[in-house]
Amino acid sequence: MEKVLALLLIALAVVYAVPGPRGIIINLENGELCVNSAQCKSKCCRHDTLLSLARCSPKASENSECSAKTLYGVYKKCPCERGLTCEGDKTIVGSITNTNFGICHDAGRSRE
């Protein structure tokens, strides 16, 4: 009985020593390697060139370059932050060739 109790206490100590829920496959931080945007906390997995490794990146801010959508789950430019819209090419050809870039604009502001 003493061995079981000691084993239980050791198991509890190990459980409490483990850090919070850090992603290994999902819930990845910016800068970590990814294969799909669904893995990232920011929901943006991007690469600079076709041969470069994709990494989680922050979403595009106002007046930054953006991609409207992707068919592959990996962006060349990240989509806009919440409340902004990506004004640019939204064609299926742009999505296939990953050239559907635009600029993030505030959806709430009126255009003048």
TrEMBL record:
<dbReference type="GO" id="GO:0008047">
    <property type="term" value="F:enzyme activator activity"/>
</dbReference>
<feature type="signal peptide">
    <location>
        <begin position="1"/>
        <end position="17"/>
    </location>
</feature>
<dbReference type="GO" id="GO:0032094">
    <property type="term" value="P:response to food"/>
</dbReference>
<feature type="domain" description="Colipase C-terminal">
    <location>
        <begin position="63"/>
        <end position="106"/>
    </location>
</feature>
<comment type="subunit">
    <text>Forms a 1:1 stoichiometric complex with pancreatic lipase.</text>
</comment>
<dbReference type="GO" id="GO:0005576">
    <property type="term" value="C:extracellular region"/>
</dbReference>
<dbReference type="Pfam" id="PF01114">
    <property type="entry name" value="Colipase"/>
</dbReference>
<dbReference type="InterPro" id="IPR047576">
    <property type="entry name" value="CLPS_chr"/>
</dbReference>
<dbReference type="InterPro" id="IPR017913">
    <property type="entry name" value="Colipase_N"/>
</dbReference>
<comment type="function">
    <text>Colipase is a cofactor of pancreatic lipase. It allows the lipase to anchor itself to the lipid-water interface. Without colipase the enzyme is washed off by bile salts, which have an inhibitory effect on the lipase.</text>
</comment>
<dbReference type="InterPro" id="IPR017914">
    <property type="entry name" value="Colipase_C"/>
</dbReference>
<comment type="function">
    <text>Enterostatin has a biological activity as a satiety signal.</text>
</comment>
<dbReference type="Pfam" id="PF02740">
    <property type="entry name" value="Colipase_C"/>
</dbReference>
<keyword id="KW-0732">Signal</keyword>
<keyword id="KW-0222">Digestion</keyword>
<dbReference type="GO" id="GO:0016042">
    <property type="term" value="P:lipid catabolic process"/>
</dbReference>
<keyword id="KW-0964">Secreted</keyword>
<keyword id="KW-0442">Lipid degradation</keyword>
<feature type="domain" description="Colipase N-terminal">
    <location>
        <begin position="21"/>
        <end position="60"/>
    </location>
</feature>
<dbReference type="InterPro" id="IPR001981">
    <property type="entry name" value="Colipase"/>
</dbReference>
<keyword id="KW-1015">Disulfide bond</keyword>
<protein>
    <submittedName>
        <fullName>Colipase isoform X1</fullName>
    </submittedName>
</protein>
<keyword id="KW-0443">Lipid metabolism</keyword>
<dbReference type="GO" id="GO:0035473">
    <property type="term" value="F:lipase binding"/>
</dbReference>
<dbReference type="GO" id="GO:0007586">
    <property type="term" value="P:digestion"/>
</dbReference>
